[in-house]
Design goal:
This protein is an alpha/beta fold and 298 residues long. The protein has helices at residues 41-48, 51-56, 84-89, 120-128, 161-170, 186-196, 205-208, 211-217, 226-245, 260-271, 283-288, and strands at 2-7, 12-17, 23-29, 59-63, 77-79, 92-96, 99-103, 106-109, 115-117, 133-138, 143-149, 152-159, 253-256, 276-279. A hairpin with a 4-residue loop joins β10 (133-138) and β11.
């Protein structure tokens, strides 16, 4: 048995994985790295991972912001092109109660701007699966576009559309009109996409954002659709930027996972005429395939 932990700035996720790569148990908690006080990561690890798991497992892998600055044990970034071997090789080892932990490295690029990821690299490689080459998209607060070739990450770019939309919905001139507990409605999202891509309007996202308020004032957008409209505007703008930078369609375009964000993103890509497909993230199989050196306590 082995344990895989993705501990991000906002949440904790752990899987207990058997030798065949099957996930036999999982834990999900809304306890992010940023919420752990005084660097008490080892104590929280013991609390979050059951003693039974720690006794059954031969080793554990940790990824995400837990391996970043301000996390439990900071690791470096493996510069792209990088695959599992490089991610493991630049990891750091620690032993807790006799259990070897390997803190995996992230992946970085330096051109045209420095860009990094921690945790998403494993998801991207898992989502690409057996494809010789693919563009993997991981939607979220910081959406990642990742080029994967033969199991190695060759390129990546981060688009902060998700966080931008969340900030606009929570603390802006527009947010004052949004009802409490807003849902991202399909109607609002579709209208946002159409507006983002309208050739009748010059400019980009900044030119269009105020319409999330003005359309309501002129009774052309119901208040309950504002959150969805913002999400559609930002997602549409993000895809336009990605189209200018990536040759979407030259290799398979895969949207990783089945979260609500992923489902909406897949819908948006298809509305744009991009032949995208959903991709399952088989983390268990990937962890089971990690190179042997990862199994050694250091």
């Amino acid at each position: 048995m082995q344990i895989y932990v993705e501990w991000t700035s906002a949440s904790f996720a752990a899987d207990l994985i058997d030798a065949a790569g099957a996930v036999v148990a999982e834990i999900r908690q809304p306890l992010g790295v940023n919420q752990v006080k005084d660097g008490a990561f080892e104590a929280r690890f013991r609390e979050l991972i059951p003693a039974d798991w720690r006794h059954r497992a031969t080793h554990a892998y940790l990824a995400g912001m837990i391996t970043g600055r301000g996390g439990w044990l900071e690791t470096s970034f493996a510069p792209a092109p990088a695959g599992l071997a490089e991610i493991v090789a630049q990891g750091k080892r620690l032993v807790v109660d006799g259990l070897p932990l390997l803190f995996l490295s992230g992946v970085s690029v330096d051109d045209p701007l420095p860009d990094v990821m921690r945790g998403e690299e494993l998801k991207a490689i898992a989502a690409a699966g057996a494809h010789p080459a693919a563009t993997v998209i991981l939607p979220g607060a910081h959406t990642k576009y990742v080029a994967v070739e033969a199991g190695r990450i060759t390129r990546l770019a981060t688009y902060m559309g998700g966080e931008t939309a969340a900030l606009l919905r929570r603390d802006s001139l527009i947010s004052r009109l949004i009802p409490e507990g807003p849902e991202i409605t399909d109607a609002g999202f579709e209208l946002g996409l159409a507006t983002a891509w309208s050739s009748d309007i010059a400019g980009g996202l900044l030119r269009r954002l105020f319409s999330a308020r003005s359309l309501v004032l002129f009774e052309r957008l119901p208040r309950e659709d504002i959150a969805g409209y913002i999400a559609g505007l930002v997602t549409g703008a993000e895809i336009l930027e990605a189209e200018a930078e990536w040759s979407l369609g030259s290799v398979p375009v895969l949207v990783a996972g089945s979260s609500p964000d992923a489902v909406r993103y897949l819908t948006a890509l298809r509305r744009r005429g991009i032949a995208a497909a959903s991709a399952r993230i088989d983390i268990g199989g990937l962890i089971a395939a990690l190179p042997a050196p990862a199994l050694l306590p250091g």
